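Now for one specimen:
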Amino acid sequence: MEKTYSKTSSGKVTWNALRKELLELPKEDIVDLVDAWVKTFWTLQNYWMIFTERDFGFDNAARLDGEIWEKLAKAQGYRLKKVFKLGNDIQSLASLLKFCAAQWVNSGFEWEFVQITDQRLVMRVNKCPMGTYRTSQNLPLLPCKLGAPDLYRTFAGVINEEIEVSCLHAHPDAPKPGVMCEWEFILPE
């Protein structure tokens, strides 16, 4: 395998130097780097949740997880909005959701946009890494219907405060084959 990075020399590491080096990488390497970073993020998230649950119990871990995701969604949402110069419409929300770390496809998520119109977006998550792991370990699923609305309301609010968010299905609802959760986003006329 041919290396694609430049030789590293002694001295101070700065953002300007790293940025220059990143801009010289082939696009495929940058995509792979982003993927590695997001997978690392999800590894951290999953271990954090597992160890917090072990030491402080399921209820405390789920509550803290919800608080963290709400804060993270706001920070990441504004960053993505700036990077992609997103507007305040449903299509902008779809773009934000597509590129956010919360649903990175290559980290074990399988999901889809069931519907996107000017006023409505429906998103379905068929598989998520935390749900897959918890099921494989015979652990209870996280009550996403209770914690995730804040995550999605925060993402939607970054795009447009008027967007309404509803959970159409999520645990602790009765299981639906092939569906972990389903969310609806409405932009009133």
Remarks:
- The chain has one domain: 15-186.
- DSSP finds six helices and four strands in the chain.
